[in-house]
Amino acid sequence: MIDLKALLGQGNPPLVGIDISTSSVRLVELAQGAKGEIRLERYAAEPLPRNAVTDGNIENLEQVVEAVRRVWKKSGTRAKHVALGMPPASVITKKIILPAGLQEDQLEVQVESEASQYIPFALDEVSLDFDVIGPAANSADDIEVMLAASRREKVEDRVAIAEASGLKATVMDIESYAARAALDRVTAQLPEAGAGQVIALFQIGAQVTHISVMLDGVTVYEREQPFGGNTLTQDIVRSYGLSFDEAEARKKTGDLPDNYQAELLTPFLESAALEVTRAIQFFYTSTPYTRVDQLFLAGGCALIPGLLELVASRTRISSAVISPFKGMQIGPSVRESQLRLDAPAYLVACGLALRRFG
Question: Which part of the chain is the SHS2 domain (predicted)?
Fold first, then answer.
């Protein structure tokens, strides 16, 4: 059984969030600012070599360690405690009902007993954790508990990366939960704190788009679609004979031939908008919900010119590119002009860094 307090990062400041994705390593450090507000102290990113991480699996530990070391040095942080994320597909979560009034050791025994019903692996092969959500809805004598389990080697890979980088993994979170923690801060700034609003979040990554729909802070729908920014990069590779890394770099700078926008970028934007529209329709047909009040785009593709406007027109939903740092104080080492361009890609890293505050 994993130490829950360590997992939730209680009493371990300062703490930095490190998001290890398919394409890069991103770091965020937050601190307590004036008047109880949160301050963004620093952030940084380093690209990962292609195939160093595939489908959330660490394929080349040394390359990832090198990227983590570089991003830690580049950021200027001195914090050695880190919060890391696990891909949602690597973690099994399940809400279970247990009797109220159990002691901690009794809870652990009950959780392990229940876990064996839901986990398709031997318990000695998994890292297991749980969190008491609160009283069960339909029984005063029971409590609702969230169970989380992952293959032990997947957790140990990330712990090993931190240790090899001279850091200590204090918190291990699920990436989608970290993103939701960052999103909750943003929705709290909506009119009436977003109460009663159905909010959809599309995180467009390199290979996968992760879709989450929330209502009053509760995730009511979650899904992944195999679509991401690498589709456009591969098109650039094929069309202009560039290496993948060079294509990725030029995609960001826009240093491409005149026909790029018409022949490659516009079709990609159309495909992205179509993916979002289909996902919304699937949400309507597979759940009791018939509306989305606010749509947020996140990830490295979110700021591609024209994507937001196309999504808004196709879905006919109020849409915005999310900044997880909205409403935060900005530290002296952060360039605000650059932050506006970078922020949508830091949703998970920001959510991980927020674990510093409990």
Answer: 15-183
